[in-house]
Structures are given as C-alpha cells and as structure tokens.
Design goal:
heterodimer; A: alpha/beta; B: alpha+beta; 2 helices; 8% strand
C-alpha cells in the first residue's frame, strides 16, 4: 500500500508496510500513483500526453523511471506487501507485562476548567487524595508485574497532583529504593496546572522527574476562557511566570507545554506561537475530548480550518528552525530512522495491558480516561487484574483490529488510535473516532513532510 | 535516481527480527494523554545507540 500526497511543494510517496518515504517529482508522482492499477503502456501514454511540453519527458526517460520503480519494489521500499497481519492475530494471546502506571494522586483540583474530562478532577466521584500506603503498593504492584522490563514509567496525575505533593515526593523516594533492589529504572512524570508551583517543586522535579507536563492553552484570552480558578477568574497570570521560571530552571531536561484547543480557538497555531514567543520550546496542543453537544466541541466545519492550521504550523516550524529559533511540537516529533519497531506499531498504546491508571484508593482502570466508568474497573493493586474480560477487550485494540483501518495508510503510525476516543465516539474500544483519524492523518502528513524537508535541505 | 529521492528510514520488515523488546515508552504516558499515536515514539534501542 502506498500513500501519495503533495504538501509544501513536495510530492511525497509513503510506502506503508516498509515505512519508506520518497520525495519525487511530478512525473514520478503520477507514475507511482498509477503503477498498481494500470499497465505500463497506459501509464507511458498518459505521462507523454500530460508532459508533452517538457523536453525531458521522453519514452526512454519513462522507461528509466519504470526501472527505478521496479528496483525500489525489489528492494522492498515500494509496494511492499503486508507481512504483519498474521502477527497481529497473536496479540490476543500474548503475555503482557505492566510497564507504566498513571497514579491519580489527587482527585481534586484548584482550577475549575470547563472542558475537564475528569470533571474538575473528581472523575464523577468524590474528592480524594492518594495515601502514601496506596502509592507505595502501586509501585510494588508495578515492579511485581513488570517481568524482565527494566524501564518503568509512572505519571503523577490528577486532578492536580501538587495538591498531594508530599505524597508524590515520598512515592518517588520509595521508587528509588525499589530500583536498587529490583534492577528497575523508574521514569517519573509530573503533570500539573502550575498553580502551586514553587521552588521546592521545581528543585525536586528537576532532580527526579524524567518529564513534566505543564498545562497552558496559549493566548491569555483563550487560556482564561476555559481554565479558571475556583473563584471564576482566569489562571493565565498566576501560572505563566511560574512556568517560565520552571522551564528556565529545567535546562535541557524534558518537558511539555501542553494545551488543549477547542471550537473557540480553531486558529490554535496562534496559541502555539504564543507559547513559543513566551520562550517555551517543547510544545503540545491537543484537540479537546468532549461530547459533541458541548459548546466548545470541534465541528465538521472546523476540519478544513484545522487542516490548514496544521500546515501553517509545519511550515512555520521549518522556517523558525532555519532562523535558529525552532521549537518542537509533540505530534511532529517523528523519527523516521530511530522510530518504533513493527511490534510497537501494531500493538498500540498498551492501555489496559501494559499501561493502567490507579485511583486514589488503589482501583485499576485501563487508562486515565476510563477512570470513573465502573464497567471498566479492572481490579485493584492488591489483587491485581481480576476483570479479564475487559482486559482481553483491550488486548484486541491494535492496528489490525478494526475493519475501518484495513485500507488506511496511517494505521502503522496510529496503531489503531486511542481506545478512549474510540469508546466515546462509537461506544466500543475497538470502534473508530473518525474525526480524530482525519486530524491524525493530517498531522502525520505534515510531520513526514518536515522530515523530507530536513533530509533534502540538510 | 533522476526523479525519485528516497529518504533514509527504518526498515519495518527488518524490525520484525530486531524489534519487540518492549522497553519503549508507553504511547501517551508522559505526553499528550488524549490523542496518541505510536509514530513519535522513540525506539529505546536506537536511543541507547545515540
């Protein structure tokens, strides 16, 4: 399967099953696009007719082009067959180990963001804080179920985790003890709205947190519109100076400035550029996840605007990089040489199998987005996963699980997509969130184009 | 090749033999938390080499 598209002056041919990417001229673009469904004589006639005003497009030249195409085909870089489908069938029977936990250390929040999927941190339940005892047991549970995996990830999430900061610090210290005893390596992440950021948090996070995710939606008026304090005021002025201080102190260590865009700011690139202009360099901006009838939900009419926005973003990022003031965008961080192997590309995000969320009281859910939905309760950190039926459902979430993905060129980039998004859109974790697919495909086209640009102009 | 420039990429078919160690990061952990893919995941083995 191939995917041919034009973007930013490039004609790009993506060979889906080999992962190869080719930048081609107009003639080759047409030839490759027609190659699978037409005989060579038909293609040759069509090309000679279309490019009759170009002296370099001759019958001999087209024969040479056919030879090049055949050569790429023989080397497995063009029209490579799908040799992975059988491997996907084994996924249901695989033995999985747990390698990541999202610890909901605080089901409470000091902001009252209108679009919060976690219902202002409470996940449609009571306010709660995780005890140190539960946190320690969660790490024990992770180590016990991680098999031979060395790298284990733990995200401190909420609600707002800084509302339970001492417990976070104590859990990290306990994790460091476990590392030595068990030959494991914890990578901790802190996701925070920034309200309670202070020097103690910054110092500890820069020493112990592999990554920090800082929530900012961009321009002041956009951020303040939905991210309000409990008293109803905007939070921009409270958090931005703290985030700037944090980013400065963080040096070269990982962080993401992460925003959400909604129907209110379909021109979201202006929010990304605003973040960049504030001095932040590691950026992420996500489409809002909400019910279709919410006033800020993205609409069908928004789609063409969003597509254009992703293109604007890619072009501007290339421009700024050449000017020496580049920044990264999470979804455009694609490494064509060192990216994921085919197993990762098929098996997906691992929610419910390799990755689980832990509530303040130690209950397990397939991921943070299922917390509070009792039918998706998997078990708890003392007894382990007892709801095997739900876990088996999640084992099936992979790049080959959905009929809708069968002919999709992007399936080895999204791996079947987000189970929570699919569930909210279709009622099934093995369904499809088609709107999200369309945005994802656009992002991948932009990300690959940027790599082509960098490769050609390096 | 006159009209085709091939970008250097990881050979996915070869990775059926070399991949699958499972040490890589869980997709949306530590990042977007809403609309993940796998494309931007780093391979732990290649990260080691780097």
């Amino acid at each position: 399967m191939i995917h041919c598209y034009k973007l930013n002056g490039y004609n790009i041919v993506l060979d889906v099953f080999s992962g190869s990417v080719h930048s081609v001229d107009e003639v080759a673009f047409d030839a490759v696009s027609m190659y699978e469904h037409n005989d060579k004589e038909t293609i040759k006639r069509a090309l000679l007719e279309k490019y009759k005003s170009q002296n370099d497009v001759t019958p001999e030249d087209i024969e040479e082009l056919f030879e090049d195409i055949e050569s790429l085909k023989e080397s497995g870089k063009l029209f490579a067959p799908d040799v992975y489908a059988d491997k996907a069938f084994d996924l249901k029977n695989r033995n999985t180990v747990i390698k990541a936990l999202c610890l909901h250390v605080a089901h409470t929040c000091n902001l009252n963001c209108e679009y919060c999927f976690a219902s202002q941190g409470k996940y449609h339940g009571e306010r709660a804080l995780m005890s140190l005892e539960v946190g320690k047991r969660a790490l024990d549970f992770l180590v016990e179920n991680s098999g031979t995996r060395t790298n284990l990830e733990v995200d401190f999430f909420g609600g707002e985790p800084l509302m339970n900061w001492q417990v976070v610090k104590d859990i990290v210290m306990y994790g460091r003890e476990l590392e030595k005893k068990n030959n494991k390596k914890f990578r901790f992440t802190l996701t925070t709205n920034g309200v309670l950021l202070d020097d103690d948090v910054i110092e500890f996070a820069n020493k112990e947190m592999h990554n920090v995710v800082l929530s900012l939606d961009g321009r002041k008026e956009i951020h303040d519109h939905l991210r309000k304090t409990v008293g109803g005021k905007g939070s921009y002025d409270i958090i931005v100076p703290k985030f700037q201080h944090f980013a400065e102190k963080r040096g070269n260590q990982n962080y993401y400035m992460r925003g959400t865009f909604t129907h209110n700011n379909v021109d979201f690139t202006n929010d990304i550029f605003h973040m960049a202009d504030l001095g932040f360099t590691e950026l992420s901006m996500e489409p809002v996840v909400c019910k279709p009838d919410d006033p800020y939900a993205l609409t069908e009419e928004d789609l063409p605007i969003l597509f254009e926005q992703y293109e604007i973003l890619a072009k501007e990022m290339l421009k700024r990089e050449k000017e020496g003031r580049g920044f990264t965008f999470y979804h455009y961080m694609i490494d064509l040489k060192g990216g994921p192997c085919i197993y990762k590309r098929i098996s997906g995000c691992g929610s419910g199998t390799e990755y689980m969320a832990v509530t303040p009281w130690g209950e397990l859910f397939p991921c943070h987005q299922f917390v509070g939905d009792e039918k998706y309760s998997l078990g708890n950190i003392w007894d382990g996963v007892t709801n095997k039926e739900v876990q088996n459902e999640f084992k099936l979430c992979n790049a080959y699980a959905r009929e809708e993905c069968r002919d999709c060129w992007a399936k080895l980039y999204c791996s079947g997509g987000c189970a929570a998004n699919a569930y909210h859109a279709s009622g099934s974790v093995t369904g499809v969130y088609e709107y999200g697919c369309r945005l994802f495909k656009k992002r991948m086209e932009c990300a690959i184009m940027m790599q082509v640009d960098k490769s050609i102009n390096k | 090749m006159k009209r085709i420039q091939t970008i250097d990429t990881r050979d996915l078919k070869k990775s059926t033999k070399t991949g699958g160690c499972g040490e890589c990061q869980t997709s949306c952990q530590s990042a977007c938390k809403t609309s993940c893919g796998v494309a931007n995941q780093q391979c732990e083995k290649s990260a080691d080499k780097q």
